[in-house]
Each structure stands twice: as C-alpha cells, then as structure tokens.
Amino acid sequence: MADDVAAADGTQGGGRDGLRVVLGVTGGIAAYKACELLRRFTEAGHTVRVVPTASALHFVGAPTWSALSGQPVSTEVWDDVHEVPHVRIGQQADLVVVAPATADVLAKAAHGLADDLLTNTLLTARCPVVFAPAMHTEMWEHPATRENVATLRRRGAVVIEPAVGRLTGADSGKGRLPDPGEIYELCLRVGERGTADRDLAGRHVVVSAGGTREPLDPVRFLGNRSSGKQGYALARTAAARGARVTLLSANAALPDPAGVDVVHVTTAMELRDAVRQAAGTADAVVMAAAVADFRPAAYATGKIKKQEGKEPEPVALVRNPDILAELAADRARPGQLIVGFAAETDDVLANGRAKLRRKGCDLLVVNEVGENKTFGAEESEAVVLAADGSETPVPYGRKENLADTVWDLVANRLG
Fold this sequence. Notes:
Pathway: Cofactor biosynthesis; coenzyme A biosynthesis; CoA from (R)-pantothenate: step 3/5; Cofactor biosynthesis; coenzyme A biosynthesis; CoA from (R)-pantothenate: step 2/5. By secondary structure, the chain is of the alpha/beta class.
C-alpha cells in the first residue's frame, strides 16, 4: 500500500518553522520502517499527522502511531466527521509522504480513487507529494504499476525508485524501501522548495562523488580527503527535483540516497569507464568526485615491506586521464551539459577561470579547500563559473544549498 508524508524545512534549513507533514502508511511489511521516518520528522520540529490504511494497522497498531506523533490516528473518513478530516488534512498539509507505498495505493492515487482517509487526503492535497514504493520486484516491474508511476510523476508527484536488496522471505531484488534516513533527506529537499514543480522531471543526470583511490599494493593506495558529501547532496537534490539520477560513488562511506541508481567504483580508470557508460543517455553530467591526477606506474602484487637500513624505493607515478576534459570535448549527445568541480588552495578564482577554459565544460564550481576546509564538512561556499563569463557566488551554508544552485543553473540552460 502507501504512506503519505508532508515534509518540512524546519530546524535543518533555518528561516521557517517546522512544516505540517502527513505521513501515509500502507499495508506492507516495510510499514515498521515508517516509525523511524516519523521519529526523524518529529525530532526536527515538524508536526506529523499519521494516516494509516486499515491494512497498515495489521503491521503497526494505531497506539504506536499516536504515541510517536502526538496526534490522533484514524483510517476512516467517518471518524470525527464534524471536522471534515477527509478534506482538512490534505488542505492543511505542507508535504505528504507515502512510505511505504504499495502497488495498491499507487494504483488508487493514479486513478483518483478515494475509499479511505489516506486516499481522500491524496486527492485534496495541493502540496508536494512523495511516494516511497515498497513491493516485490515482479509487482514493481508490472506494466500496470509502471504506467501508474508514470501517471503520478507526470502530474507532479515525486515517486522514489525503490532500493535493491532483501525483500520479504528469501527473495531479493528491486522493490525494497529505501533507507528511512535517506527518504527523510529527500523529503526535506522537496519540503524546503515548497513546490510540486519538478524542473528536472524527464531528465537523466549523472553525478560523480567521493574520491578515487589508486592502489600501490594490496594494502596501500594513493587517495584524497573527499568525503563524497557534496556529490551525494547533488544526487539527492536532483532526485527531489524529479530527475532520474545515476550516482557514481568513489569510496564514499555514505548510505545510498533514496531514489538514486548508485554505481560503486574505486579507481580513476573505473570511474572513467562508468561515466562513459552512464553519460550516453544523460542530459547533464556533474563531476563532483575528486579524481586522482596520478596513479602508481606499477602495482606490487605483494605488500611492500620495509627493509632494515634501507630507504624505500621512490614511487613512480603516471598521469590519469582527464575525465572532465574528455567529457566536454566528446559529448555523448547534443546539448549535453558538463559541470566540473575545482578544489583550489590559493588564487582560487584565477585558477578556476583558467581551469574552466582548459577543461571546456559549461559550469565549474570553484571552492577553496584545505585540511579544515570543505572536505568532510556539512557546509561549504563556492563560486560557480560559467563558460559564458557569468559568475554565481554561493554563500557559506549547507551543501544542499550549493547543490540547488548548481541545478538551478543546469535547469535554466536545459530549459
């Protein structure tokens, strides 16, 4: 079934109070995971009204939802009729999230059916709506479900792609509910925008994140300090704006963002192969990963041991391919936008402008880095340089703010 959540900005974003969230919970085994999603919303200061289906109460009872939310819980339009709940709940919501969303609730929402309080709420809501499907792979891949999902997306709803993993019983495949923390982060992005407008709907974007590692021997590698947080923020934000997102993750110890296809890579050469394959259908490629400029010329098949009284042999390096320059010079399709990142330690803007010309990309995000700057932090500041000569400064703030600025510039150019 499905669950609808109205998510909000609140304490995470600053600048506005917590939002009124409707959390729809439907009759799937993943219903228990909605408790974690509910907790995240309430602890961040958002007001949450849980609207379960009757089937959902077979998995998690009404007292649990009421105790965790501090709000009354009902499944029927006949309860508290004088308050007209089947109309008021949807009208007053800032965000509706359905998690898990079953094939049944997706079908009802797509066809405008309203036989309980949740489906009535979906019809009356004029705020952003997010569906987080969870079902067996065969149900997700059935043509009827795919058409229902397409219909909902066409109308402006955000339907998250389910995760791949263990399902009910011994089955595995696509259909698992994404991590509740990642659903929350995506909902937060949708709620902060405060609009159902999905300006990247129908677009395929590729984002690289993290830092490549170049092996020296079986236990050592050359790497960098990139955490992958900015790339993951870019992927999460693009998904919230309706894009189909492929995330190429290089050694980032982060959970997969909800609704994003993730490809894990290790080295620069692996990243090069992965981005070439993914870019074939992409409208935009954003290279946020920190790609090693060099790799060891030789790989030792056994651990390099220190020898008493001897200094180690020098490590010879060879250049890695310039993936960003290659993408810009040989675009996979007409009109494809290429966005690069430049981490600089001095003469930031001057070096950034020179790199923009040298790489040939459309946009270059330039920021200053150092041991205590940017890498691993939750906040950053940058300047986005464009090939047309324009510059867009992004003041110090959350990485999601920078991500939204990048997608604003991309959407305008694609538009």
